[in-house]
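Annotated sample (chain length 177).
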Amino acid sequence: MSAMHFLIETLFNLFLMVVLLRFWMQWARVDFYNPLSQAIVKATSFAINPLRKIVPGFGGFDMASLVLAYIVACAKVSVLMMAFGGYWDAAGVALGGLLTALKEAFSLVFWILVIRALLSWVVQGYNPVAAVFEQLTEPLLRPIRKVIPPLGGLDLSIMVVLIGMMFLQRLVMDFLH
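Output written by the structure step:
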């Protein structure tokens, strides 16, 4: 039973992260001609393009991507609720979907920052994946660098953002409990 729970949760989380990544890429104005960007767009277009006809953008944000992320999160909660709880609760799904999307957004940002830090140690020259990660994280890191400049070649901005994110995540979870 736990193996099936793991499989369902993993499949939904992976697609949810891809949808959230597409929203983040559009917000950060990542180069959409990059191969990684094209892969993300192709993986999500089948669901986002029809949704765009119903959900317009707002203030330069792709609201269809956010709506799809919420739908996927609610679907995950619903499937897990019915498969392992034997019931379905609309209020539980609505709140659970919101919390799931929020948790996965924090997770996505965390892993992108960690991967960017690791890539900075090993990638030399231009790499399309590293370029996308850099474009995604620069809007988050730039304000920190204005306050804490790199110290002797050591950039602490990623660590500051990670600690801040973990604090925010725990603060939100404490507030909700």
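Annotation: The two ends are 27 Å apart (CA to CA).
Annotation: Residues 90-122 form the longest helix (33 residues).
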